[in-house]
């Protein structure tokens, strides 16, 4: 059984006979991509520190991956993992899901919603408007400061400020919702 028809039949049978595991598998593939090139031992038990692992992507194409060190978690539950990829040392920030963190995750702006005003980069936001205020497109509604650089955040739509998602002055990450504008 080769070809697209057999793949479709196999996928349908898996979905009908094993709905739970198939749903888990598809969710895993959506989150992490295709992992079939990773060794079973590496996938199930993780990378061994100080050992170089070879991942063959296709004939003649290989990745050399190694785990060098795992840092302590920070206040947000992120660990810095030092790994080598083809001989280059790379720091990677990874959320440790085993650690309970007390910080509240900030609400993210919806890029498809023109009424959402988002932080363009990480920094400290200072609001220049109040809830219920009438704003026009391009009108300054806040400023953001990071590393001695200050930028003006402007309204992305005309309307009334329906909700402030941050306090008067607050630290934010890129993409965090600052305020919502209800179109007039």
TrEMBL record:
It holds the Pfam family PYC_OADA. GO terms for biological process: gluconeogenesis. GO terms for molecular function: pyruvate carboxylase activity. PROSITE patterns: BIOTIN, BIOTINYL_LIPOYL. CDD domains: biotinyl_domain. Residues 105-182 form the Lipoyl-binding domain. One of its GO terms (cellular component) is cytoplasm. This is Unannotated protein. It comes from freshwater metagenome.
């Amino acid at each position: 059984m080769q070809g697209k028809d057999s793949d479709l039949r196999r996928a349908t049978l898996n979905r009908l006979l094993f709905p739970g595991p198939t749903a888990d598998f598809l969710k895993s593939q959506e989150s992490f991509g295709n992992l079939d090139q990773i060794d079973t031992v590496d996938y199930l038990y993780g990378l061994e520190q100080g050992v170089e692992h070879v991942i063959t992507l296709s004939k003649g194409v290989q990745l050399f991956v190694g785990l060098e060190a795992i840092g302590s978690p920070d206040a947000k539950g992120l660990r810095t993992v030092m790994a080598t990829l083809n001989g280059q040392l790379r720091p990677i920030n990874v959320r440790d899901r085993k650690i309970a963190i007390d910080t509240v995750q900030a609400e993210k702006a919806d890029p498809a919603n023109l009424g959402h005003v988002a932080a363009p980069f990480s920094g400290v936001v200072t609001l220049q408007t109040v809830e219920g205020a009438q704003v026009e497109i391009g009108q300054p509604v806040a400023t953001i400061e990071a590393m001695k650089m200050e930028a003006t955040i402007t309204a992305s739509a005309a309307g009334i400020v329906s909700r402030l998602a941050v306090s008067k002055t607050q630290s934010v990450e890129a993409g965090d919702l600052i305020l919502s504008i209800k179109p007039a």
